[in-house]
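tmp note - Pyridoxamine 5'-phosphate oxidase
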Amino acid sequence: MDLSDLRQSYTKGSFSERDLLDSPFEQFEKWFREAEKCDLEEPNAMCLATADANGLPSTRVVLLKDFSEKGLTFYTNYQSRKAAQLEANPQAAANFLWLPLQRQVNVIGRVERISKAESLKYFLSRPFGSQLGAWASPQSQVITSRSILEQKLDQMKRKFAEGKVPLPDNWGGYRIVPESFEFWQGRVSRLHDRFIYKRDEAGQWVAKRLAP
Ligand SMILES: Cc1cc2nc3c(=O)[nH]c(=O)nc-3n(C[C@H](O)[C@H](O)[C@H](O)COP(=O)(O)O)c2cc1C
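out:
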């Protein structure tokens, strides 16, 4: 498969020093709001990279469910492959790709579990089917057939027939506490605009332009 002719010119925007907001959190929120307004499915989908204790990386998409100056929160199974990696090596990188805007954002940081109370609050806001799914799926384990999942789901439906589903012990949120944010805007001739925010010695966020 020769894909060498598959290319697009990035002409939809620019991003310069005068556009930069002081805080990367405000900058992220601004770009996120703009991504939400585009005809884009799941603007909160982020490609999450983790690595095991030997440094072997893996990626997968998860959904951003909360964003504040505390960090970026997503929910998952605490016995999944990503969770095992995060317990061994609590650092991650996340990438948001907003192609209709020809933008990406990269966030790197350390990762911590959120409190059980926060996970419970979010879990209770999920649809019944998703709550049952969290109980039914041994995420990232090898299973011999789909029917195992369907049987487990039926079992859970019966168990929680009255509609109140408790938070599974092995399910909850992680928060990425950002150490850097990079904002990327595609430009012509591959001379894209890139700015990276990191904290200086005084703890203030400082943005610097990077070569594309
Ligand atoms: C659009 C999209 C959203 C997803 N959201 C989540 C999510 O929020 N949490 C989650 O655990 N998995 C989510 N998944 C599934 C993950 O990509 C992945 O398959 C799963 O978490 C197992 O990953 P692991 O084996 O590396 O732990 C999503 C997948 C897609 C394509």
